[in-house]
From TrEMBL:
<comment type="similarity">
    <text>Belongs to the AAA ATPase family. BCS1 subfamily.</text>
</comment>
<dbReference type="GO" id="GO:0005524">
    <property type="term" value="F:ATP binding"/>
</dbReference>
<keyword id="KW-0067">ATP-binding</keyword>
<feature type="compositionally biased region" description="Basic and acidic residues">
    <location>
        <begin position="105"/>
        <end position="133"/>
    </location>
</feature>
<dbReference type="InterPro" id="IPR003960">
    <property type="entry name" value="ATPase_AAA_CS"/>
</dbReference>
<dbReference type="InterPro" id="IPR003593">
    <property type="entry name" value="AAA+_ATPase"/>
</dbReference>
<dbReference type="GO" id="GO:0016887">
    <property type="term" value="F:ATP hydrolysis activity"/>
</dbReference>
<feature type="domain" description="AAA+ ATPase">
    <location>
        <begin position="33"/>
        <end position="193"/>
    </location>
</feature>
<keyword id="KW-0547">Nucleotide-binding</keyword>
<dbReference type="InterPro" id="IPR050747">
    <property type="entry name" value="Mitochondrial_chaperone_BCS1"/>
</dbReference>
<protein>
    <recommendedName>
        <fullName>AAA+ ATPase domain-containing protein</fullName>
    </recommendedName>
</protein>
<dbReference type="Pfam" id="PF00004">
    <property type="entry name" value="AAA"/>
</dbReference>
<dbReference type="InterPro" id="IPR027417">
    <property type="entry name" value="P-loop_NTPase"/>
</dbReference>
<dbReference type="InterPro" id="IPR003959">
    <property type="entry name" value="ATPase_AAA_core"/>
</dbReference>
<feature type="region of interest" description="Disordered">
    <location>
        <begin position="105"/>
        <end position="134"/>
    </location>
</feature>
<dbReference type="InterPro" id="IPR058017">
    <property type="entry name" value="At3g28540-like_C"/>
</dbReference>
<dbReference type="Pfam" id="PF25568">
    <property type="entry name" value="AAA_lid_At3g28540"/>
</dbReference>
Amino acid sequence: MLAMEEAKKQLILEDLQWFKGAKDYYAQIGKPWKRGYLLYGPPGTGKSTLVAAMANLLDYDIYDLELTTVKNNKQLRRLLIETTCKSIILIEDIDCSLDLTGQRTEKKEGDDEKAGEKDPLKDKTVGEKEAKDKKKKGSDVTLSGLLNFIGGIWSACGEERIIVFTTNHVDKLDPALIRPGRRDLHIELSYCRYEAFKMLAKNYLRLESHPLFETIGTLLEEIDVTPADVAENIMPRSVKATTAEDCLKKLVVYLKKSKKEKKLKAEQELLLEGGEKLALGEISGGPVKRTS
């Protein structure tokens, strides 16, 4: 069971169940029978776990696609054709896979250059830079090629597929990648709060309630920790006599320590900010020597 808010979990469940039985609907509207998901949030919030749960629910295969190992758009198309129906195509950390936004920016800058005004020396330098960048990234996949992969004519090959992007930094993605029609459902997986903690306690400790739940719930509202952090701290460490209460107490100690560290960090940042303002004030307000 996933550690997330019940309403969000129900939304995902209903969407997947609708998609699985929507073959006739997609045929009626003349669109490929596919669905796009964007999962975003800090590391450790369960993005990969959610994809695995989706595959288990639907009984689909998972294709984990690493874009940096794909040589070019042609190979990307071939990979799409080779994937089977009833599958999830997963591209993790899409913002880190390729500098897709940068490629489009460079193209725009090149289009703005006027014919006949090229500097041969500059062209040579740019060519050398592009060759180095190409060697570094090891892939010629373009933004256009990826867009065709997920939403163009090539995406119509096959049916009953779900294409999932994950990212820790949704603000870094090109808007063309995540617009409606390409990413049908955007799901934020955030830090662990009380509802998610109760699910973890039920899964890991078989607990529905405990006097320490209230204390833990209060602490979770005051600091940001991931479900992975919480799970790590409530998991029994040995087969010896480690009770559920011992695990909860260990979590409380961890959360209080994290809260203390957060407070200390905030105080240090405040002192640093105050010191910088003081230094600037002394510089601007100090005596000015004039020479003639």
